[in-house]
Amino acid sequence: MTEQNGSYVIEIPRQEIEQGGISPGDLYRIGVLTHQSSSPRPTENENETRSSSRSDSDRQQGPPVNEGDTIEVTIETLGEQGDGIAKVERGYVIIVSGGQPGDTVLVEIENVRENVAFAEIISN
């Protein structure tokens, strides 16, 4: 977070937009968590260690679904393209072609990416 012209700006990593997690121009609500520390800000080496361990943990977890999986999901909303959007563990997004909000459907996962998976309905 940086101060610019009397306001504060929060930077969003480019990969979040490129991977479809968020879109420029859309409205988002964010929470800012603060903590007090008696020690000074981390040194460059400490930052590298924290960043490295966080990405190692993320890589080990990976997406909670695999291509070919069959799972039941509830469509929560519609995406910009009109496809259904469901969320599963850890808030992972599954885009369901033809899904409508409120539908609980059995889907087959066809394509898995780091932040999102694409699925087809196989049973209502």
Key terms:
OB fold (Dihydrolipoamide Acetyltransferase, E2P); two-stranded antiparallel ribbon; alpha+beta; 124 residues; 8 strands; 2 domains; 31% strand
Tell me the strand order in the biggest sheet.
3-7-8-6-5-4
* Low-confidence blocks of residues: 46-59
Order of helices and strands: EEHHEEEEEE
Relative strand content: 25-35%
What general form does the structure show? elongated
Number of helices: 2
Write down the overall mean pLDDT: 79
What is the total tally of β strands?
8
- For the record, give the distance between the C-alpha atoms at the N and C termini, rounded to a whole number: 45 Å
The number of domains is 2
Computed over alpha carbons, the radius of gyration is 19 Å
Helix content: 10-25%
Largest sheet: 6 strands, mixed
- Derived structural class: alpha+beta
